[in-house]
Write a structure and sequence with these properties.
mainly alpha, HD_domain, 2 strands, two-stranded antiparallel ribbon, 2% strand, single chain
Length: 233
């Protein structure tokens, strides 16, 4: 028996096994005769699967997994480091969360171990890539493993871009909601994780701008409190 999985925002994913933590490829829905069409339908779900961290923080319009990967890919395109294979970085950015079209965006607060998360995503990637021709199948699966095991300089750079894009998005939500500093936990979670000079410079610019916004908001609150105290006297 198969059932569907629903994300925190109520988005229904592709069929998965009846076990709450198992996504065995043998129990997934029967493949479409047109495998490429089936693959494109599955990855198309990434455009509507919300990023779980934002859902849990009650963000009104949380970005999708595809939104996240798109900006990561653009950031990879903008890297100027000649020691890195830029094309490989872009591919890694586009593939690193691909399994989430089947398993969803598993967040740390879901209380699923890293080992179990990896197992589920590995089975999902095997299912996905099995829909493709041999050469493409091998390339995509190996790129996913490269990122998972952080086995190359390019994979390490893309991991930093993953964290960088997350706090960029957190900052944008703070600004759109007029709540500077509300998503501080996301920034705290990235401390000490940036090592590439270009990423560090971008993060530095972000933090300087954000800290200025937080300071300005704090000063405005003090001014308003001062006026209230004066009125009460």
């Amino acid at each position: 028996m198969c059932r569907t999985k629903t994300t925190p925002a109520g988005h229904t994913l592709s069929p998965i096994s009846s076990s709450a933590t198992s996504h065995s490829t043998s129990k997934m829905a029967a493949r479409s005769p047109n495998k490429l069409f089936e693959f494109t339908k599955l990855i198309g779900q990434l455009k509507t699967i919300p990023r779980t961290g934002w859902v849990y923080r009650n963000i009104k319009k949380p970005e999708s997994v595809a939104d996240h990967m798109y900006r990561m890919a653009v950031l990879a395109f903008l890297i100027e480091d000649k020691k890195l294979n830029k094309d490989r970085c872009i591919k890694l950015a586009l593939i690193h969360d691909m399994a989430e079209c089947i398993v969803g965006d598993i967040a740390p607060s879901d209380n699923i171990s890293k080992e179990e998360k990896h197992r589920q995503e590995k089975e999902a990637m095997k299912y996905l890539t099995d829909l493709l021709s041999e050469d493409v199948r091998k390339e995509i699966y190996e790129l996913w493993e490269e990122y998972e095991y952080q086995s190359s300089p390019e994979a390490k750079l893309v991991k930093e871009l993953d964290q960088c894009e997350m706090i960029l998005q957190a900052y944008e939500y703070e600004m759109s909601e007029k709540s500077p500093g509300r998503l501080q936990e996301f920034f705290d979670s990235t401390k000490g994780k940036f090592n590439h000079p270009e990423v560090m410079q971008l993060v530095k610019s972000l933090n300087e701008t954000r800290n200025s916004e937080i300071e300005g908001d704090s000063k405005e609150e003090h001014r308003q409190q001062g006026r209230l105290n004066t009125d009460e006297q």
